Amino acid sequence: MLEVRGLDLFYGDARALDDVSLVVPEGAVVAIVGANGAGKTSLIRAIAGMLKPRAGSIKFRGAEIAGLPSHRVCDLGVGQVAEGRQIFPNLSVSDNLDVGAMLPRARAAAHANKAKVYEMFPRLSERAKQFAGTLSGGEQQMLAIGRCLMARPDLIMFDEPSLGLSPALARDVFDIVRRLNESGVAILLVEQNVAASLSLASHAYVLENGRVVLEGSGDELLRNDAVRRAYLGL
Q1: How many domains is the chain partitioned into structurally?
Q2: Is it the case that residue 101 has pLDDT exceeding 80?
C-alpha cells in the first residue's frame, strides 16, 4: 500500500531523515520505534505532504506522492492522527468532525460517516454541541481519531496516540487501533509505548538519528536484546 524508498529530509542544513525505506502492506500494522529526535514525526509529516523531502520516493498504491500538498495526499486515502491531537478547540465536536469530511472523497458519505463515528465513540455523540477545547484528554483523542475517520482513509498514520493519557485510556486507544485494523484499515504507528506498539505490529522499523537501523516482525523486535535494553528497560 505504502512504499518509502531512499527518503532524505533536511531542516535547513540539518539532516532529519537519511536514506529511509519502509513498506506498509495492505491491511497491516507497521510500527516505527525510536527515541525522541530519531526522525519519526518527520517521517510521518513527509508522507503526509507537510514536509518536502530532498530525495527519495513515497508511493501510495503505486502512485508517487512525495512533494504533493497534504490535502491531495489525504484525498488519496492517507489519514493522520497527529501528535498532540490538534483539534479545533473553539469549534464544537460536531463541527470538528465536519471539517474532516471536507475532502472530495468524503463529502457524499459525510452524514453516514458521522453516524459511524458516533457509534464508535458514544461519548462524542453525547458532547456533539460542546466546544472541543472543553473535552478531557481522552475525549480529545477520540475526536482526533473520529475526525480522521470522517475522511474515509485507507491508511491511518498515528503519531504518539497515547501521549498524555492515563494507562487505562491508553489501553482504550490501542484497542481502537486494533479494531480499525481489523476493519481493513492499514496502520502506520509511532508510539512511545514500545511494548504495546510492537505487540500490535505485524512488522516494525527502528529509527536512530534519521536512519533505519533494524527491522523485523513485531515479535522479533520484542525479543531483540538491543531493543529490549534501549526501549523496554529490560
Answers
A1: 2
A2: yes
